[in-house]
Amino acid sequence: MQWTGVFPAATTQFAPDLSIDFAATQNVLDKLIEDGVHGLTIMGTCGENNSLEPDEKLKVLAAACETAKGRVPVMVGVSELTTPRAVKFAAEAARIGADALMVLPAMVYVPKEAELVAHIKAVAAASDLPIMLYNNPTAYRVNISMSVLDALVKVSTIVAVKESSSDTRRYTDVFNAFGDRYIMMAGLDDVAFEGLSLGAVGWISGLTSAFPRESVELVECLQKGDMVRALEIYRWFMPLLHLDAEHDLVQSIKLAEQIMGRGSERVRMPRLPLEGARRAEVTAMVEKAAATRPSGS
């Protein structure tokens, strides 16, 4: 499993009747690969995992693996209400051909740390796939603390952490506590530069779905130490990157995709497409970004 580079948090595309549009979903993924991303993260938050039925999730994963054809690794979200459901999906994901799992806490219920550790260990035992833990305390009300990471040190398949808290001190704290035991991935778009500068080796990115080439160039500039160019791209990108920290990030990212000719804004309820002043605001932001792209991007 290659962990470096840009892994867009890809969207799931829907037809007008809100059934899954598999052809459109595969087209979105294929275009991202063609634009140079280093891997795909499917059925995470932006992929509307929890709006999909169990059989739909398996079909979306199969379609993603078919599209990737080994060109880039495919990492799939494991986001379920219960531990047995998460275990079952992890085993099925391995059978279908996923390259890695992005494991979330069980949805809705806020666990004690011992319960969180037990959940993660159970999912890890379901397959031999490498695992990235998804830490997003703002969205999911659960913090994967240092003590939880310590309790998981001996689980060899747990290799990475997607850090989606806004606390950039976590990158240094994790390194100081565990050295290189856990690979760190930046997971919140509007502190991605900071995370990548503090030890993250890759970026699980939402807005890459709309602007993949700039995202790839940003990471490549940081990897080779071109801070001037990296800052130029980051400062241009920042108004859009802030959208990733809002509750309507999925609708905003899908609208951005649509404006850029890369997908549809259709979402499943309880989400609804943006409307009114918010839609106008996001549209203006995307159009401005498209008109002012950094030279050479």
Notes on the protein architecture:
With 297 residues, the chain is an alpha/beta fold. The two termini are 28 Å apart. The chain has a domain at 5-211: Aldolase class I (TIM Barrel), CATH 3.20.20.70. It is built from 12 helices and 8 strands. It is globular. Helix 9 (212-224) packs antiparallel against helix 10 (227-241). It has an 8-stranded parallel β-sheet. The model has no long low-confidence stretch (mean pLDDT 97).
In terms of topology, how is this protein built?
Layout: E1 5-8, H1 22-34, E2 40-42, H2 54-68, E3 74-78, H3 83-96, E4 100-103, H4 113-124, E5 131-135, H5 137-140, H6 146-151, E6 158-163, H7 169-178, E7 183-186, H8 192-197, E8 202-205, H9 212-224, H10 227-241, H11 249-259, H12 276-291
Parallel strand pairs: 1-8, 2-3, 3-4, 4-5, 5-6, 6-7, 7-8
CATH superfamily of the domain at 5-211: Aldolase class I
Distance, first to last CA: 28 Å
Overall strand count: 8
CATH architecture of the domain at 5-211: Alpha-Beta Barrel
* C-alpha Rg (nearest Å): 18 Å
By secondary-structure content and strand pairing, the structural class works out as alpha/beta
Mean pLDDT: 97
Helicity range of the residues? Answer: 40-55%
CATH first level of the domain at 5-211: which class?
Alpha Beta
Unreliable stretches: none
